[in-house]
Design a protein that fits this description.
- The chain has helices at residues 2-11, 14-18, 21-36, 41-69, 91-113, 116-119, 128-144, 148-166, 172-203, 208-214, 220-238, 246-250, 256-281, 288-307, 312-333, 336-367, 378-381, 383-397, 403-418, 421-450, 483-499, 501-517, 519-526; strands at 72-75, 86-89.
- The protein has 23 helices and two strands.
- Helix content is 74%, strand content 2%.
- The protein has a two-stranded antiparallel sheet.
């Protein structure tokens, strides 16, 4: 893959050449780090941080250029579209690429500062950083892909890197969770391949820009078949109900850095693919009504599961499923306002969910558990951790004027403007989901952080509970002084979306308008009007 990318960098212009950097650079760095092996761990960490820092800077440049000048296209191997595969940086892809780059950089800082790889003495240390960078490259490739087959390749990159991270350490629970995750990923990949075969057989191309033209001439039954097959494949990856049962059993077992980036970012790759699919290839199709019902079920099933949990990780995993429903709702509306709300909510949710899982990792490292029934008094024992959890938790719940509230408000306004009993029902379900999310996180906060009588559970054995059969010991360890800094930076990024809500909302609307128009994307890739 790196060969065509390097050739593209030499053939295209300066800005166009940068499009391949977020994919190429992590892959090259992963190869270098594999060559280094387990030696020179400080150099391993430095390479990772420099690589992700450069990717973040390039992503910002691409976002500004795409917003100012329109989509940027890099043709891999010098083959012109639609014959060859291309990478396309438009407003949507660059916006989510910037946020994902910032999140992965903060997660890597967290990993390095906490000396994460030193905690897993039985694990092959030399593979954590390369696997992480391969996963980052897969995420970037998925966001920038202008070809359905290259999107499939990006998902396989994600699978290879994320499986290693999920099973890192080789414990029984992680291997079991990794097996479940891999089976679901393989099922999704098979569906994706079937959809690709049908699509190519019917249209003779897999270029998204060319498909946007040719799908209009296909029989309606073929279009619906391709759309449903692709949606099912992406829905599994996005953990949309009822294809979401695997997530709460898989993500909580992984180490904190891996869980954080999985929860915050990987499911959004599936959501991003659905946005691109529905806006570019099947605008205003008959599947929109089905998507609304799916969004409704995802919201309610996820949040009801969250309310019932007594473990921090599982509670957050169920809220993750629930809030995917908001994004699907925005896509299902098939309007500029709905898509803008979905895009805004994707950006918000990536940062907030990642922050919460990183803080949960700090809780687990500090106390040795994430069980709410065994925690208590963390507000007194570790006030900084308590604050770092409280802020994104309230943001997730949609407390005004935070970005979670603003994203929900955009979706509510779009749903009411659409009219009809089903969109209004979705609006009501969204409000109920928000209230239940607040209840779930408030209950968790009260038991784990605020509950006073159990504050003495932190750090020693409570003799009165020794008869319960549950291990009453909650051990504490000292956290590295710099560890909360990376989490605080991510929490601050989430809060900045409130301060910058105006410009971010405007950019989301421009991205949605560009998606719905379709002509800018098609013209940039094919060099002609549709």
């Amino acid at each position: 893959m790196t060969g065509p990318l390097l050739e593209a960098a030499l053939v295209d212009g300066p800005l166009e050449s940068l499009v391949c950097v977020p994919v190429l650079l992590p892959l090259l760095a992963a190869g270098v780090k594999l060559a280094i092996g387990g030696r020179l761990r400080q150099l391993q960490s430095l390479i990772s941080l420099v690589t992700l820092g450069i990717s973040l800077a390039v992503s910002v440049v691409l976002m500004i250029a795409a917003d100012t000048n329109g989509p940027l296209v890099t043709e891999l191997g010098g083959w012109p579209s639609p014959i060859g595969i291309c990478l396309v940086a438009d407003r949507l892809s660059t916006l989510v690429l910037v946020v994902s780059s910032a999140v992965t950089f903060c997660v890597m800082v967290y990993s390095v500062v906490s000396a994460y790889d030193e905690q897993e003495h039985d694990a092959p240390m030399a593979i954590f950083h390369p696997a992480f960078l391969v996963m980052v490259a897969g995420v970037a490739d998925a966001f920038l892909s202008g070809d359905l087959f290259n999107l499939y390749v990006a998902f396989e990159l994600l699978l290879s890197g994320s499986y290693v991270l999920l099973t890192f350490g080789g414990t029984e629970s992680r291997i079991r969770a990794g097996a479940t995750y891999t089976l679901m990923a393989l099922a999704s990949s098979m569906l994706f391949l079937i959809a690709l075969a049908i699509t190519y057989g019917a249209t003779g191309t897999l270029s998204m820009a060319q498909l946007a033209e040719r799908f209009a001439t296909l029989p309606e039954q073929v279009k619906v078949l391709v759309e449903l097959t692709l949606l099912l494949a992406f829905a599994i990856k996005a953990a949309i109900f009822p294809m979401s049962a695997w997530l709460p059993d898989s993500y909580p077992t992984a180490p904190a850095p891996a869980t954080a980036v999985f929860a915050g970012l990987l499911t959004k790759v599936g959501v991003y693919s659905i946005i691109r699919l529905e806006a570019l290839l099947f605008p205003g199709g008959p599947v929109s009504t089905l998507l609304m019902w799916v969004a409704l079920a995802t919201m309610l099933a996820g949040v009801l599961g969250a309310v019932a949990q007594t473990d921090l990780k599982r509670m957050l995993s169920f809220t993750l499923v629930s809030h995917i429903g908001y994004m699907v709702f925005g896509v299902a509306l098939s309007t500029v306002a709905g898509l803008a709300g979905a895009i805004f909510y994707v950006v918000h949710h990536i940062t907030v969910q990642t922050s919460l899982f990183l803080v949960t990792g700090m809780v687990e490292r500090r106390t040795g558990t994430t069980s709410v029934t065994r925690l208590g008094g963390l507000m007194k024992a570790s006030p900084l951790i308590a604050v770092l959890f409280f802020i994104p938790a309230m943001n997730l719940s949609g407390i005004p004027p935070m970005s979670g509230f603003l994203g929900k408000l955009m979706l509510v306004q779009a749903g009411l403007a659409q009219g009809g009993w089903l969109p209004v029902t979705l609006v009501a379900a969204g409000l109920v989901t928000s209230l239940l999310t607040l209840y779930a996180v408030a209950k968790t906060w009260g038991k784990a952080f605020w509950r006073g009588p159990r504050a003495d559970r932190v750090g020693r054995v409570v003799e009165s509970e020794e008869h319960t059969g549950e291990d009453p010991t909650v051990t504490t360890t000292t956290l590295p002084a710099a560890l909360p800094v990376s989490v605080a930076a991510l929490v601050g990024l989430g809060l900045s979306f409130t301060v910058l809500a105006g410009p971010l909302s405007a950019l989301a609307h421009r991205a949605a308008g560009e998606l719905m128009a379709r002509e800018p994307y098609i013209t940039a890739v094919l060099g002609r009007q549709p």
